[in-house]
Design goal:
It contains 13 helices and 17 strands. A five-stranded antiparallel beta sheet has the order 2-1-5-4-3, sandwiched between helices. The chain has a five-stranded antiparallel beta sheet with strand order 6-17-14-11-12, with helices on both faces. It has a five-stranded antiparallel beta sheet with strand order 7-8-9-10-13, with helices on both faces. The chain is elongated and about 90 Å long. The two termini are 35 Å apart. It has helices spanning 8-20, 39-45, 49-52, 57-60, 62-66, 70-77, 130-141, 147-194, 198-204, 243-262, 269-284, 382-392, 397-412; strands spanning 24-29, 34-37, 82-91, 96-108, 114-123, 207-213, 221-228, 231-239, 296-304, 309-315, 319-323, 326-330, 351-354, 360-364, 372-373, 378-379, 421-427. Mean pLDDT is 83; it is low at 1-10 and 287-292. The longest helix has 48 residues, at 147-194. Helix content is 40%, strand content 26%. The chain is α+β, with helices and mostly antiparallel strands and 428 residues long.
Length: 428
C-alpha cells in the first residue's frame, strides 16, 4: 500500500478488506491503474492479481467502459462516495455473467490528498431471481383461490415474462457492446506499443513530464520522440476526432514522422512537417469520396544540446516557454497537417531560438483547455492554462504533472471528458 501512502489505520483497514471480504475488492489510482486486487475478486473475475496489477481498469474490465462506470470513479476522485447498482457484468476469462453493485470510496494519503479509489464489487445476481421465486409461490396458491384471481395472476405472469424477454433483449445488446469494447481495448495495446517509453524521453530530457489522458479507450492524441545524432525530436500531436477514427489517423502520422527522419533524413521541423503534410494529405485526398476534413494539429521541437538551440514548427498548436522567468510564445502555422493539395502548396515556417540551462518548454493539444467544468460549467480555456504554468513553471517537473492532473480533475468534476488531453513539459 506504499503507492497510496495511506495512514496506518487506513492501511490496516484496507488490508483486512482485501483478505477477509467475501465481496470483490480492488483499488485504482488517479490514472485508473489497478494497485490492489483481492482474493475474492480473483474468484469472481477469473483474473489473477499478479496479471492485473498496473493495468488500466477499463482494459481488465471492458464492461466498465460499456456501462459508463467511469462517472462513479470520477465522483470518488473528487472526494465523493458513490454507489452504482443493478449493473450487468461479463467476465471473459471465467465466462461468468450477471449483475453487480459497486461502492466507490475515495482514498487519501497522510496529507489528505486524494490518491485513488477503493471499490467494493458485490455480485447481486441471485437477488435478481426473486421474480422467479415469486412465480413459484403464487403457482402453489392457485388451487385455493378463485377463477378471477387466477386470471389476474396469469396476466401478471405473462407480463413478467414479457418484461423479462425485453430485459434479455437489452442484455444481449449490451453483451454485443461489451464484445466490441473488448476489441477496442485490444486495439489500445497496439496503440500503446507505438508510443515512446517515457524513460526514453527522460534520457534526453531528464527534467520532463508527459501528461496523457485519452477520452476513450484509444486516442486521437499521441506523443512522439526520436533522436538522430545530437538532435532530439519531440512532438505533441492531435488527430482529427478521438476514439477509433483519431487512433487510425495517429498510426498514419506516427509512421510518417519516423519515415521523415529515418528514411528521408530530414532535419529541420518545418521540413518534417512539410513531408508529413504531403504524405498525410495525399492519403486524405486520394479519393473524391473522402469525407476526411482535416488531418492533425502538431507542435514539433528539435533540441540540439551541442549548439544549444531549439527548432520548432507547428500546425495550429503553439510552443510556450519560459526563459529567465519571462513567458514567451511561438505560434504555429494556421493550417493543419493534411491540407496538402498539388495545386495549393502550403509550407511550414521553421523557428530557431538559442536556449540556456533552466529554460522550460511546453507543447500540448487543445483537450486540456477545452474541458468543461468549474462552477459555471465553462471551458478551462488557454488563458487559465497559461496562468497555471506561470504560477508553477519553476517547480519540479513531476510536481507540475501532478498539479495539472489534480487541477483538471477538480475542474471537470462529474462532467464527461470532451477530448483527449496531452501536455508535455521539459526543462533544459
Amino acid at each position: 500500500m506504499e503507492t497510496l501512502q495511506l495512514t496506518r489505520n487506513g492501511e490496516m483497514l484496507v488490508n483486512v478488506l482485501l483478505e477477509k471480504s467475501i465481496d470483490g475488492i480492488f483499488i485504482i489510482d488517479a490514472n485508473f491503474s489497478i494497485l490492489e486486487w483481492s482474493k475474492s475478486m480473483e474468484k469472481i473475475s477469473g483474473e489473477k492479481r499478479e496479471d492485473v496489477l498496473g493495468k488500466n481498469i477499463f482494459v481488465v474490465l471492458p464492461f466498465y467502459e460499456a456501462i459508463e462506470e467511469i462517472k462513479f470513479i470520477r465522483k470518488a476522485l473528487i472526494g465523493e462516495e458513490a454507489l452504482s447498482t443493478d449493473r450487468p457484468y461479463y467476465f471473459i476469462p471465467s465466462n461468468k455473467k450477471g449483475f453487480f453493485e459497486a461502492h466507490y470510496t475515495p482514498l487519501t494519503n497522510i496529507a489528505n490528498q486524494i490518491t485513488g479509489t477503493l471499490i467494493i464489487f458485490r455480485d447481486i445476481t441471485q437477488l435478481r431471481t426473486f421474480d422467479d421465486q415469486l412465480i413459484s409461490i403464487t403457482e402453489k396458491l392457485r388451487d385455493s383461490i378463485g377463477q378471477k384471481t387466477r386470471e389476474l395472476l396469469d396476466a401478471n405472469d405473462n407480463l413478467k415474462k414479457e418484461l423479462r424477454k425485453r430485459k434479455m433483449f437489452g442484455y444481449d445488446i449490451l453483451l454485443k457492446n461489451i464484445e466490441l469494447t473488448d476489441s477496442i481495448a485490444y486495439a489500445r495495446h497496439i496503440q500503446e506499443a507505438i508510443l515512446p517509453l517515457k524513460k526514453e524521453i527522460e534520457k534526453a530530457f531528464p527534467q520532463s513530464f508527459v501528461f496523457f489522458r485519452p477520452k476513450e479507450i484509444v486516442s486521437g492524441d499521441f506523443y512522439w520522440y526520436n533522436t538522430r545524432g545530437n538532435k532530439h525530436y519531440i512532438a505533441a500531436v492531435d488527430c482529427t476526432g478521438h476514439g477509433v477514427p483519431g487512433a487510425l489517423i495517429s498510426i498514419l502520422g506516427y509512421n510518417s514522422l519516423n519515415q521523415a527522419i529515418n528514411e528521408h533524413n530530414l532535419v529541420h521541423p518545418s521540413d518534417i512537417l512539410n513531408y508529413l503534410n504531403k504524405s498525410v494529405g495525399s492519403v486524405f485526398n486520394h479519393s473524391e469520396r473522402s469525407t476526411v476534413r482535416d488531418g492533425m494539429d502538431i507542435s514539433l521541437c528539435c533540441v540540439d544540446y551541442n549548439n544549444m538551440t531549439l527548432e520548432y514548427a507547428g500546425a495550429f498548436n503553439p510552443l510556450y516557454y519560459f526563459s529567465k522567468g519571462i513567458f514567451k510564445k511561438i505560434k504555429g502555422n494556421r493550417f493543419p497537417v493534411g491540407s496538402y493539395h498539388e495545386n495549393e502548396v502550403k509550407t511550414f515556417v521553421n523557428h530557431e531560438i538559442n536556449i540556456k540551462p533552466g529554460d522550460v518548454f511546453y507543447i500540448f493539444t487543445d483537450g486540456f483547455a477545452d474541458q468543461f467544468g468549474g462552477p459555471k460549467e465553462k471551458k478551462f480555456k488557454q488563458r487559465q492554462f497559461v496562468e497555471l504554468l506561470l504560477e508553477n513553471f519553476d517547480t519540479p517537473m513531476h510536481s507540475q504533472e501532478s498539479l495539472l492532473r489534480k487541477t483538471i480533475t477538480e475542474w471537470q468534476g462529474t462532467n464527461e471528458q470532451v477530448d483527449d488531453m496531452l501536455v508535455i513539459g521539459f526543462r533544459i
